[in-house]
Design goal:
By secondary structure, the chain is of the alpha/beta class. It folds into two domains: 328 residues, Alkaline Phosphatase, subunit A (3-Layer(aba) Sandwich); 77 residues, Arylsulfatase, C-terminal domain, CATH 3.30.1120.10. The protein is 24% helix and 19% strand. Strands 8-7-6-5-9-1-10-11-2-12 form a ten-stranded mixed β-sheet, sandwiched between helices. A four-stranded antiparallel β-sheet has the order 14-15-16-17, covered by helices on one side. Helix 2 runs parallel beside helix 8 and helix 4 packs parallel to helix 6. The radius of gyration is 21 Å and the shape is globular.
Length: 454
Amino acid sequence: MESKAERPNIVLINCDDLGYGDVGCYGSKVNHTPGIDYLAENGMRCTSFYMASPVCSPSRGAMMTGCYPPRIGFESFEGEWVLFPGQGVGLNRNEITIAKILQNAGYRTKLVGKWHCGDQEEFLPVNHGFDEYYGLPYSNDMGRQVFKENFPPLPLISGKTVIEEQPDQRTITERYVEQCRLFLRENKERNFFLYLAHMHVHLPLYAGEEFVKKSVNGDFGACVEAIDWSVRVILHELRQLGLEEKTLVIFTSDNGGRGDHGGSNAPLRGKKGTTWEGGQRVPCIFYWPGHIAPRQICDELISSLDFYRTLAQLGQGEMPENIKNDSLDIRRVIFDNEKSPRESFFYYIMGNLEAVRDREWKLHVAKDGKTVKLLYHIVDDPGENENVYDSYPEVVRRLEGKLAECREELGDSIQGIKGKQVRSIGRVDNPHPLTEYDVNHPYVVMMYDREEVG
């Protein structure tokens, strides 16, 4: 295992709606991703890595806190699947994020990109452990579009301040990368945690002209290749600064892809917004030259939940006392290719507990609020094609026992069970949107011209 005396810098790259089959090292034949493939060729590529939700707000809140969404009150947002502009709910100020742990341990912290854990001031990243923030506070389809004029103008934020409304989305990735490069240069002499949360490949699809011209997979491929360009720029900057061997880079996605507009979750079943594998099993690559051996493939069951404890340990940060989480330390998996300490993973959509998997099997018990009986040998059948529920009653009983324990602790809306170990979502009085449409404002883009939402 890595020595605790060596604290790495950490760069966490989190894409939006990037599916399991959308990059070359995970099987894509249409998206050109040499930078991401380089990470995999020279690091560890994970094949059984899961986000804690198949949609963005609960996924991101879970990753930041190491908690299943219901534990932090993120099972739903006043009845919505995700947070919308101007809502009075968000990540509770009492929650301790991984950014806060690392900040307290002496790291300089910055989030560049999508937050989506609340847009009211007390929920913003700078109040949750990030020294700096630059980006869109929620999804890029939550601005004014040609067919959806009811949303306020899309805000681009620096710190707590809206610095632009309705920005040209084709420029966003380049602007994000510029912010990352400046942050790396300014903090080359100290430990840092940089969280780059891409806009891509969430709908609507806007990429720079050079990426569009080169893509063989339309605008979707152009957006994927813009992500890849960002990876190559960040690696180049780390090398130029002499920081590559001092920095752990993690590449992943917030949930599975939509499976349309050129995207793919192959060979998995399902898509974003479902608890099939395609909704929550996503790419994940760990890269740290001299510390993680090249060309490793990890088939172990791990989750974004595990970033919390693992990064805290690597950064010599103090875990919060008396605040329960669901994170496990996976350092031995990453550095020594050992067995994962995670024995089970639970699949929630909103407050509905729909499935569980262990090291070998996955049991579905609900879909769309209705009971189902589906069992798959998920190791040999990741596409969830052959239901063997009737053939393995002892496996079903064992996994149902795990579900019962989870319901007691975290709850299950389908069965009307309130969890005993859940906390409240954050709330503010008199919430308001960050922006308001002004007919006299000279917006660069008055309304985004694509009739796409993600």
